[in-house]
Amino acid sequence: MIIFVAVNIKNMIKRETYIEYLKPFIGNPLVKILTGIRRGGKSTVLSMIRDELLSAGISQEQIISLNFESFSRVELTDGNRLYAFLKEKIVSGKKYYLLFDEIQEVSEWEKVINSALVDFDTDIYLTGSNSHLLSSELATFLTGRYVEIPVYTLSFSEFLEFRKTYLPQNQENNFNSYLRYGGFPVIHTANYTLETAYRIVFDIYSSVILRDTIQRNSIRNIELLERIVKYVFDNIGNSFSGKNIADYFKSQHRKIDTNTVYNYLNALESSFIIYRAPRYDIKGKEILKTQEKFYVSDLSLIYSAMGYRDRMISGILENIIFLEMKRKGYRVFVGKTDNKEIDFVCEKQGEKVYIQVAYKIDSEQTMEREFSPLLSIRDNYPKYVVTMDDFWNDNIEGIKHQHISDFLLMDNRKIFM
To answer: What residue spans define the domains of the chain?
Structure first.
């Protein structure tokens, strides 16, 4: 059974980061497409775009807003019928704003969107929950005429805003709550127990696996897919390749082709269950093709499928930092320098940030392991060791040591101070 929880739109919390990013594109001829895992907040951002348009003086009649997951719109999931509907609604001489939620549910949707750009005066906003479907078909029909905006589950700062609004009486141990509950917005609109929260997330996960992974990619061996998911979940923060997974299954007397593993990993990426972090050779300044890392789009997916495990804490903290840097617009890599590894090399517009993540610096050996890779890099870009330590040195030879909750609340400007 899939649980859907309604949130009062009047109490909808604005996710300002996305609105600010979208504002420069409002009214221009590019198709704006919001991508991300189901129930991650895309529909809410689309509703906020509608509010922005109305506040800018756009009339209600000029905004056509459709959710293609609604049964009331099932007839419009046929591309020909959707185009006929638009042709009937749109009046010549006026600009119309099309807000289409879960566009991938429409057959030949890409032809409809292309025609809407050519035949009418439109400003178009779409959401979609399958990146492979969207990127491949958009590339074919809308080359150079679209911009993709990834929408992630709640950041720590957004989580605090939700808590302040929905659970003002429960402000203790905020980071620990974020760590255990994850960032799906629906989880933070009521005072759910962990058991109930994980049940809701598991139903989201099941829907994503079925609709955006299995059905969209015509996967037949569902049991194998689930085993690969659990392998990835169990190895968050560890480097591995498709061959490693294939070898693991062979050790359990299950024959599997490496190409099949990569096809399944690609399917999981396309449905936004996982993200890939490629390896980057810092000295050679090149992206390596082996031993990448994978992270989940929200930690609660792991907990709902496998339970919470203390032994995974280091990988879980890495996952949180990975997602935060993605939210901030960075390209995120796993760094390699000689025989040492740096958890993250983050790049944006020619700037870099280096980050090591650990649970706690509780010994000289741990300090050496976390600080020495950063000390070996001789450029002047910011370098951080991020942990959950209660006490620490603020700065060791230019490397900043910060509590993870403080780091998560820094904006890009503060990171470079």
So the answer is: 15-150, 158-415
- Beta strands per DSSP E along 51-141: 63-67, 96-101, 122-128
**Which candidate, 327, 413, 403, 272, places its Cα nearest to that of 155?**
327
- Residues 265 and 219: their CA atoms lie apart, in Å, by 12
Integer CA distances (angstroms), 167 to 159, 190, 369, in order: 11, 7, 40
Q: What b/e string do you get for 274-311 counting C-beta neighbours within 10 Å, with b at 16 or more?
A: bbebebbebeeeeeeeebbbbbbbbbbbbbbbeebeee
Q: Which CATH number does the domain 15-150 belong to among 3.30.2350.10, 3.40.50.150, 3.40.50.300, 3.90.870.10? A: 3.40.50.300
| Cα gap 222→229, rounded to integer Å | 11
- Nearest by Cα to 302 from 292, 315, 293: 315
203 neighbors 305 (Cβ within 8 angstroms):
no
Mean pLDDT, the chain, rounded, equals: 89
Look up residue 118 and give its amino acid.
Answer: V
- Contacts (Cβ under 8 Å, ≥6 apart) of 147: 25, 30, 31, 32, 33
Amino acid code (one letter) for 67: N
Per residue in 321-347, pLDDT (tens digit) is 999 999 999 999 998 887 888 999 999
pLDDT at 8 over 50: no
Q: Which residues pair with 385 in a beta bridge?
A: 356, 401
Per-residue pLDDT of 42-51, as tens digits, reads: 999 999 999 9
Neighbours of 62 (CB within 10 A): 18
- Sheet strands (E) in 225-326: 274-281, 286-296
Q: Quick one: pLDDT at residue 49? A: 95
Closest C-alpha to 97, from 106, 86, 82 = 86
- 417 burial type by CB count under 10 A (0-12 exposed, 13-18 middle, 19+ buried): exposed
CA neighbor of 338 nearest in space, from 301, 366, 289, 373: 373
What residue has token string 């604005």? 14
- pLDDT value at residue 291: 75
Residue 400 CA to residue 192 CA, distance in Å, equals 36
Of the candidates 9, 111, 4, 110, the one whose C-alpha atom is nearest the C-alpha of residue 50 is 9
Measured CA to CA, the distance from residue 209 to residue 268 in angstroms comes to: 8
